[in-house]
Write a structure and sequence with these properties.
single chain; 207 residues; mainly alpha; Methane Monooxygenase Hydroxylase, Chain G, domain 1; 89% helix; 0% strand; coiled coil; SPTN2 protein; actin binding; Spectrin/alpha-actinin; repeat
């Protein structure tokens, strides 16, 4: 990766360069201390060298910061796209069927509880995208800031839709299970009433 290569280059260059600059500064100081006839020229060259070295270090630092910012932005885009794809995939996995009887409806209710735990794991990724977008927006302006906002909004809207769909399905399954339980209770009660009626009708009639 370019950023890692430059970081290594920067570390090596700074280390080797500092050692060489220190060596030349040592020579200059020794010449000046010995009262060399060209003391003024030596001091001037020493100052010029140190200024050039400081400028180079600043350039390396600026380049490092630019690469770090570029890497962070590209990582945000990658994370936002990946999170959006995962949220949309989970949305497609949501079934419409609610069950034909109490047993299948209760089984689907259990499956939906597992599904809700799965999508809850995505909430951390969504939150991270939102936090990264808020921070990066402050560092950029114009088109880039608008692009960051657009990526964040796509993730947030898809996440809100997924949560809404999941909550709607949970309510629908709950209503379905309640309906089947009610129907079973009605059926059991009717069967009991039929049994009581048969018992009454089976008894001898009074003369």
């Amino acid at each position: 990766m370019l950023r890692d290569k430059f970081r290594e280059f920067s570390r090596d260059t700074s280390s080797i360069g500092q050692e060489r600059v220190d060596g030349v500064n040592g020579l200059a100081d020794a010449l000046i201390a010995a009262g060399h006839s060209e003391n003024a020229t030596v001091a001037e060259w020493k100052d010029g060298l140190n200024e050039a070295w400081a400028d180079l270090l600043e350039l390396i630092d600026t380049r490092s910061q630019m690469l770090a910012a570029s890497y962070e932005l590209h990582r945000f885009y990658h994370d936002a796209r990946e999170t959006l794809a995962q949220v949309q995939h989970k949305q497609k996995q949501l079934p419409d069927e609610v069950g034909r009887d109490l047993n299948t409806a209760e089984a689907m209710q259990r499956m939906h509880t597992t599904y809700e735990h799965d999508i809850q794991a995505l909430s951390a990724q969504v939150r991270q995208v939102q936090e990264d977008a808020a921070r990066l927006e402050k560092a950029y302006a114009g088109e880039k800031a608008a692009d960051i906002r657009r990526h964040e909004r796509a993730v947030s809207e898809a996440w809100a839709e997924l949560r809404g769909s999941s909550q709607g399905r949970r309510r629908l399954l709950l209503d379905t299970v309640d309906k089947f339980r009610f129907l079973r209770a009605v059926r059991d009660l009717l069967l009991w009433m039929d049994g009581v009626r048969l018992q009454i009708e089976g008894q001898e009639r009074p003369r």
